[in-house]
Amino acid sequence: MSKKTNMIISALLLLALFGAVLGLEQMLPPTHIALTVLKKGCIYALVAVSMNLLNGFTGLFSLGQAGFMLIGAYTYGILTIPVADRASVYQYFDGGIVQFSVPVIVGLIAAGAAAAVFAWLIGLPVLRLKSDYLAIATLGFAEIIRAFFQWDKLGRLTNGSNLLRKFPTFNSIAFPFIVTVICIGIMVLIINSSYGRAFRAIRDDEIAAEAMGINLAKHKRMAFCISSFFAGVGGGLLAMYQTSIQAATFRSSMTYEILLIVVIGGIGSVTGSCIAAFLFIASSEWWLRFLDTEMYIGSFKVPLLRTGFRKVVFSIIVMAVVLFARRGIMGNREFSVSGIYDFFKKKFGRKEAAK
Amino acid sequence: MLKVTDLKVNYGGIEAVKGISFEVPEKSIVTLIGANGAGKSTTLRSIVSLEKPASGKIEFLGQDITGKDTDYIVSQGITLVPEGRKIFPDLTVLENLKIGAYMRKDNLTDDLNWVYDLFPRLKERHWQPGGTLSGGEQQMLAVARALMSRPKLIMMDEPSLGLAPLIVKGIFEIIREINRQGVTILLIEQNANMALRTADIGYVIETGRITMTGTGQELLVNERVRQAYLGK
Question: How many domains does chain A have?
Fold first, then answer.
């Protein structure tokens, strides 16, 4: 199958998926849990792919994702709250110092840009570190950022430990879907470009990559900034989804959730991250919910089912995945139309031969 | 073409290279032979700045490249085929080759055809991940990848390491062929016999110093070299 037909069919499938999701939205009541899962899943897919770009494709084990999402969320909020609403949002800080507001799209791009700028600055010292040391340093950075944004002295900008709210949000799933598709599309283009090849070369063997003339410091910083940019956009989307921003929600547990998605989906697989993001959100928010409520069969009370049991089961599932499917759902392969085509052709071809 | 003067390099706290000088004339094959830990690899690595020299001077085509950035040195026309091949295992053969040409932005078709002519096996396997190739094929890929940068000087660190004798023979034939096509070669080897038979000029390194030099043939028949490195 040629590359062009592959692209066209993939695009058509994506369009069909988009149509199906919009149709679903029309049919279901607006508060249905499936819609929540799809919206949040989109956002997590975007952030998971951005983390995969760094951890899976460049081999830099970074745990700063929640920190960059926080920067993105705050940047989006600060820049887009309508001027008229600023007085009430910043009621303890004289209406804040930012007295303008920008359109949503500009706000999201600024969210990514702010995260990328922070990444560039932090990358200067931190990217000299390797593996676990880099993970610890970036994790520490994320925690510092979270505390920093709640600092009273910055209140006129960040509203201190109070909520940021009243910024524009989305109702339809179309918005996060489109933004996510565009962002992931850009990341896939980067991964397949000569820069992406250089990132993967660094992951495979730093010394050989350097001997080929790849400037390690420059390329690592580039991957770090790109990853953080999209984490920042994801943070902005998450703010829109939650309709308010509070630094306390961007804990390191959020980074672990995203890391989990990346690992379950397959380190080094974009489609794996997307699939895993929806599976993760669906099971944690929806499919395992029934475990949290007491259930009676006749007069028999089913044991173990109570609030919090969901999390126990979820952890066991995760452990099982990590133990028995160590490379995740997709490994480092990609889910593609031509892959399926080849698969069926092989099967079919074998049957033909058997006859 | 390459002139190294009084090079000293520290590696892991010890002085691994203690002031060596040698020259690689244009279009020649030069080999540095010596035992494990004599400082051969460190010398090559310091030429492309993977190791920073403590003192001394490295000149390439009359230009002082001592301690310049690796990407700059590569762009000037020196490539290293690292010890132990170090191909990129998860990248396909074709991607490995494209990385070799990373410093150049022009059309690669001619160069791909060139290396595919030298190594037809790589053409057959261009879609396979590098890690699935056999040891000999990986060494071919490492050499081909280095050639993709269109080097004027290619430096090879133990290309025969861990390969069967027949394959080693093939690798050395390729080295001669590349040289015939005008690429200068600096080779380091523990397989002194093969290296000296191939080389125009040989240097013997012992514990960070050059102790002997001569043409390949002279060293092959030299009594001390025969005793120490050829096991005769």
Answer: 1
